[in-house]
Amino acid sequence: xxxxxSTVLRLVFGTENGKKHAMEFNNPKSxxxxxxxxxxxxxxxxxxxxxxxxxxxxxxVDGGIVTRSFHDLVP
Length: 75
Known about the structure:
Layout: E1 4-15, E2 20-26, H1 34-46, E3 51-52, E4 55-70
Antiparallel strand pairs: 1-2, 1-4, 3-4
């Protein structure tokens, strides 16, 4: 198997119970901006789209692009 890499958009929210909740979305646009990420996170909070075991998402904690690489050592 060949070496592979993947990119995700990782969003981290605060919940109503004071915990953190993270979610990831595969293959984000390569030209996504900080403002677009912030607006998306605020929309998720405002529309109450997701509920977690720790309650509703209430605050923006962090968001960004994560790139992972996998180097196959066993053919």
